Task: inverse folding
């Protein structure tokens, strides 16, 4: 092979891998992106049943009901709207009424959000950022409010959460 | 007083870093040996000063000096000693101190073990390293003051986040940082070489040991972090494609590509431009990881409390260094002449494919990690790109590497006989297929698991088939000199084999997750629950007092065929100061697999909600990573790669031919 042919092979294979990568990425992005909504937005957007999404807000006080088995039912609120959530499984260590929560799953035909995972927070004083942002948008957020039940000087400005 | 000394030392280190930028660089321009020689004492002293500052901060944590904001916010007098020490890097300021400590350590190491590196290249590189330490020291002093005092010191501190009070997390950050920051040496050398404009095969020899060191630590750091997440979060998951994990995977992929391309550059003087680019890329991705994790744009336990000025500052550092290095690269790259030619079917050709796929996989992870951030900045919509995206993109891009790696290893440099290599690999591939059928017959289960397990066996066997091929080369009578050849094999050959086999081991562990058993149920005391091949039983309940927590313990036994094989105690801890609970999963390793139980709080009727898992072969995931790191270390011990060895050791002629 001549030098030119060798170079062309090299460039060709590089382009081949690049095309493969771009193709795979675009394909995967189309179907595997999950949108996040607050309960208020959820009502506005008219998301169809079955679409995977994440919702986040505060667990409304007094709505947590333990159903039979390990199922629970509770309402998530951002002050502008509420949505009922059902979940079967163990709740994260820090799941509490009045605390922030992020749930991933889909709406069923009755408009109840069936969550297949509830995201835990790492730290009491943290709130998932998506939730904090959604609450801020609704004007429910107060600095030093729900996320700042910790005792540290930094707690009031902290709105970082965890998605693990 | 000690604290103020630390603070002063830190400021002094910054001054030295500034000198380190100017003096050696100037010396290299003016051909002044004495000015260039300042690089060494400057880098060493700077490290000593940062170490002093770091020691002062550690001292404040150890003696619980609550007049320091940093100690108040992250420590507590009842915290166990190990977490007082590791708590230093369990917060933003302290972790940046650790970063600076390791950065200056890298500068000192580069200055100390560099007799083989030409003085001008070294002077320029140390100068670049000085820029890095100056930037980060400035960042600490301006935005992340670890030595700030508090006007009225409280009697007690706020304690460290309980989830960080764990031996795994005590060693994970140092390992990870040694990996991240280790690439700074490679970056500085690449930038120094670009400034000087002379880049040849010798350059690859200078960067390979440092790349290996960084890569080994990064491998260990990632594995440690993954194991920590596995046993501490109580989900039984070990990799979440969380942005923070991706941030550590990105430099690892680039670093792996760099290791391979540097070997091509060293042996054949080809791929020069590409190797330099990867050297810049690996550390750039480390910086990006730091930015993502430290700036608070991501949401995770790693982001601690964040404030926007810090994010902007790190973004500035990021733009300055990545932009600067790429600009230099753009200026110099066209002047680099191509080196040795090679046919597409050759060791080089396959290493190029390896590099293309690794960087493509790296790009896929990069896009999946940053796309949500970009989209949110663009139109405010919040999206999550989760595991399905990464499985769908990373998988297909990484899979060909697994298949092609053993083949590439059997090919000769320059021009090779693909058919011959394929024939030599035929038995190994057949073994992989048989293994696949065997796994299917024994375990059944998902097709992905069966295929991956077969490929894993193929990888492991092929890694050592390569060694076999070198000890018994074709066309040579078998017995003759086989032992001598075995003894004469360079350590780097063993290292490569072990690392590749390690990849296979990890893959086997991953494949076996498909055969796991998950049981989420309410357990009653003294009742038997079958999880996989084992029967689990909660025998009694206990409570205990730890130094800064109360613990509810469930004593459990594991039985197989009626015989008790192990007892273990999953528990739940309640940390008093932060009013927070953590799960201590009960984990028992049985035949490389693990029984994993996480319990929730006791119900009023005495029962527990629990997640119980049987995870066959799961420990292989991390053992494989250990094998990879060990392989890297073996290569590092190879005479030819040892830092400070100027000339490549002469090898017997017959071995060189076999390479």
Result:
């Amino acid at each position: 092979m001549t030098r030119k042919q060798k170079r062309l092979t090299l460039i060709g294979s590089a382009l081949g891998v690049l095309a493969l990568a771009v193709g795979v990425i675009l394909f995967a992005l189309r179907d595997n992106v999950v949108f996040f909504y607050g309960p208020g937005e959820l009502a506005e957007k008219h998301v169809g049943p079955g679409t995977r999404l994440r919702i986040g807000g505060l667990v409304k006080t007094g709505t947590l009901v333990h159903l039979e088995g390990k199922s629970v039912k509770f309402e998530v609120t951002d002050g502008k709207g509420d949505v009922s959530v059902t979940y079967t499984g163990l709740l994260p260590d820090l799941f509490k009424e009045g605390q922030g929560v992020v749930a991933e799953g889909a709406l069923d035909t009755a408009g109840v959000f069936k969550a297949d995972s509830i995201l835990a927070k790492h730290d009491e004083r943290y709130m998932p950022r998506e939730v904090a942002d959604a609450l801020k948008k609704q004007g429910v957020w107060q600095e030093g409010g729900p996320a700042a039940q910790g005792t540290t000087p930094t707690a009031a400005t902290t709105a970082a959460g965890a998605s693990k | 007083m000690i604290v103020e000394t630390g603070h002063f030392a830190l400021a002094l280190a910054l001054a030295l870093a500034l000198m380190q930028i100017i003096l050696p660089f100037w010396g290299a321009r003016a051909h002044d040996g004495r000015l260039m020689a300042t690089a060494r004492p400057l880098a060493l002293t700077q490290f000593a000063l940062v170490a002093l500052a770091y020691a002062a901060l550690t001292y404040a944590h150890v003696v619980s000096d609550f007049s320091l904001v940093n100690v108040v916010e992250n420590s507590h007098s009842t915290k166990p000693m190990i977490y007082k020490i590791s708590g230093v890097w369990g917060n933003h300021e302290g972790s940046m101190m650790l970063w600076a400590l390791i950065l200056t350590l890298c500068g000192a190491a580069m200055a100390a073990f560099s007799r083989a590196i030409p003085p001008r290249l070294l002077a320029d590189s140390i100068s670049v390293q000085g820029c890095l330490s100056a930037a980060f020291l400035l960042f600490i002093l301006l935005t992340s003051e670890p030595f700030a005092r508090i006007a009225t010191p409280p009697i007690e501190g706020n304690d460290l986040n309980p989830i960080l009070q764990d031996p795994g997390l005590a060693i994970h950050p140092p390992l990870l940082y040694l990996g991240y920051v280790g690439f700074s040496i490679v970056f500085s050398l690449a930038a120094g070489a670009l400034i000087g404009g002379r880049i040849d095969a010798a350059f690859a020899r200078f960067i390979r040991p440092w790349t290996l060191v960084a890569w080994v630590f990064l491998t260990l750091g990632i594995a440690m972090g993954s194991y920590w997440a596995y046993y501490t979060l109580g989900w039984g998951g070990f990799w979440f494609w969380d942005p923070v994990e991706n941030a550590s995977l990105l430099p690892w992929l680039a670093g792996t590509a760099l290791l391979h391309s540097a070997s091509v550059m060293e042996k054949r003087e080809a791929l020069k431009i590409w190797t330099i680019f990867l050297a810049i890329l690996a550390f750039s991705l480390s910086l990006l990881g730091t930015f993502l994790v430290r700036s608070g744009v991501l949401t995770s336990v790693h982001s601690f409390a964040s404030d926007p000025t810090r994010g902007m500052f790190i973004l500035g550092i990021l733009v300055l260094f990545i932009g600067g290095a790429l600009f230099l690269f753009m200026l110099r790259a066209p002047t680099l002449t191509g080196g040795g030619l090679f046919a597409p079917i050759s060791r080089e050709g396959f290493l190029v494919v390896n590099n293309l796929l690794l960087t493509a996989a790296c790009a896929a992870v990069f896009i999946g990690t940053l796309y949500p951030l970009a989209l949110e900045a663009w139109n405010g919509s919040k999206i999550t790109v989760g595991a399905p995206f990464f499985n769908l993109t990373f998988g297909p891009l990484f899979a060909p590497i697994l298949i092609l790696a053993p083949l590439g290893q059997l090919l000769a440099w320059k021009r090779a006989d693909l058919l011959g290599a394929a024939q030599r690999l035929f038995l190994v591939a057949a073994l992989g297929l048989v293994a696949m059928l065997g796994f299917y017959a024994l375990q059944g289960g998902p097709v992905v698991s069966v295929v991956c397990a077969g490929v894993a066996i193929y990888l492991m066997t092929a890694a050592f088939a390569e060694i076999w091929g070198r000890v018994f080369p074709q066309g040579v009578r078998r017995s003759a000199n086989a032992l001598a050849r075995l003894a004469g094999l360079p350590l780097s050959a063993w290292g490569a084999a072990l690392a590749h086999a390690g990849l296979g081991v990890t893959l086997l562990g991953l494949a076996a997750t498909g055969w796991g058993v998950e049981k989420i149920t309410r357990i009653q005391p003294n009742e038997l629950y079958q999880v996989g091949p084992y029967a689990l039983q909660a025998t009694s309940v206990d409570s205990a007092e730890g130094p800064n927590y109360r613990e509810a313990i469930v004593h459990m036994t594991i039985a197989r065929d009626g015989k008790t094989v192990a007892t273990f105690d999953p528990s739940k801890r309640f940390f008093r100061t932060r009013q927070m609970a953590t799960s201590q999963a009960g984990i028992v390793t049985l035949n490389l697999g693990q029984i994993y139980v996480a319990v929730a709080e006791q119900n009023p009727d005495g029962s527990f909600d629990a997640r119980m898992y049987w995870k066959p072969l799961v420990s292989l995931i991390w053992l494989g990573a250990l094998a990879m790191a060990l392989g890297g270390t073996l290569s590092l011990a190879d005479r030819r790669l040892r830092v400070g060895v100027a000339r490549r050791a002469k090898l017997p002629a017959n071995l060189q031919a076999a390479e």
About this structure: Residues 3-31 of chain A form the longest helix (29 residues). Residues 35-157 of chain A form a domain with the OB fold (Dihydrolipoamide Acetyltransferase, E2P) fold (CATH 2.40.50.140). The beta strands of chain A are 33-37, 53-59, 65-66, 71-77, 82-88, 100-107, 113-119.
